[in-house]
Amino acid sequence: MIQKNRLSWDQYFIAQAAILSTRSTCNRLHVGAIIVKNHRIIASGYNGSIAGTPHCTEVGDLIVDGHCVRAVHAEQNALMQAAQMGISVDGAELYVTDMPCLQCTKLLLQAGIQTIKFMRDYHNDTFANELLTQKMLNYYKSPSNQQQLNKLI
Ligand SMILES: [Zn+2]
Ligand SMILES: [Zn+2]
């Protein structure tokens, strides 16, 4: 029997990233990121301040050049969680709600992430794109079922 509402792997992981984004403590864009290997979630993160320090939601964002510098980005938090736990992310896939910024793109490439799947286009950086092309990294918009996502988040 075919399950009508069964999510594909891509839809499932992007939905997980979307759920995580609701934990964000920055007042700017809420971002969630999941690192996946062999259909298993090995690390995850959302954007927020350094653990144990005040949240943007408590003391306000710290804006420099139009960006909040208090929050650690979701992708960076996912990578750091893996580092803290001693988990290799080499060859893994990243599912993220929003297209990564230049700094995150550099770190993800350097950590050995092979595929980046995102839900929303966001200020696409030209140099980040150039790096992704040079590294021949698979990079695409994940097919998300917006109706199902709206029910979840
Ligand atoms: Zn903030
Ligand atoms: Zn970033």
Give a description of the structure.
There is one protein chain. The chain is of the alpha/beta class and 153 residues long. It is 35% helix and 22% strand. The protein contains six helices and seven strands; from the N terminus they run αββαββαβαβαβα. It has helices at 9-21, 56-59, 74-85, 102-110, 126-134, 146-152, and strands at residues 32-37, 40-46, 63-64, 67-68, 93-98, 115-120, 138-141. The chain has a five-stranded mixed sheet with strand order 2-1-5-6-7, sandwiched between helices. The chain has a two-stranded antiparallel sheet with strand order 3-4. Strand 5 (93-98), helix 4 (102-110) and strand 6 (115-120) form a beta-alpha-beta unit. The longest helix has 13 residues, at 9-21. The two termini are 29 Å apart. The mean pLDDT is 90.
Hetero ligands: zinc ion
Envelope shape: globular
Gyration radius over CA: 15 Å
Biggest β-sheet: strands ordered side by side in the sheet: 2-1-5-6-7
The averaged pLDDT comes out at 90
> Approximately how much beta-strand content do the residues carry?
15-25%
Total DSSP E strands: 7
H and E string: HEEHEEHEHEHEH
Distance separating the two termini = 29 Å
Largest sheet: 5 strands, mixed
Which range best describes the helical content: under 10%, 10-25%, 25-40%, 40-55%, 55-70% or over 70%?
A: 25-40%
Summarize the structure.
The protein has 153 residues and is an alpha/beta fold. It is built from 6 helices and 7 strands.
SSE order and pairing:
Layout: H1 9-21, E1 32-37, E2 40-46, H2 56-59, E3 63-64, E4 67-68, H3 74-85, E5 93-98, H4 102-110, E6 115-120, H5 126-134, E7 138-141, H6 146-152
Parallel strand pairs: 5-6, 6-7
Antiparallel strand pairs: 1-2, 1-5, 3-4
The structure holds zinc ion (2 copies).
